[in-house]
Amino acid sequence: MKQISFDEFLKVELRVGKIVSAEVFVGAKKPAYLLEVDFGEDIGIRKSSAQVTDLYSPGELVGKLVVGVVNFPKKQIGSIMSDCLITGFHNEQSQVALCVPDRPVPLGTKLL
Fold first, then answer.
1. Does residue 105 lie in a domain region?
2. How many structural domains are present in the chain?
3. Does the structure show a pLDDT above 90 at 112?
4. Is residue 65 within 8 Å of residue 44, measured between CB atoms?
């Protein structure tokens, strides 16, 4: 595994956001949802595509706190321009479980 310095890690803006909308991403190559995530007043609402359809329905995603990277360049994913990356982990069946805080924290809080 390649090591990075602590200063390199600090460059990654991992922030807490709340999913405000989730819908099936029609036209995605792999099953996915189109998410809008509120990262608080300073960052605002960002769009992302998330391949979490195996473990979550759109209705249960709305209101969920998630951890996202907000300082990657925008990326075209199908018909949308994604401006954040929502984080998660693959389980034994290669399904993605979201990385989430286990207690409420203010939107936009940076992971340290």
1. no
2. 1
3. no
4. no
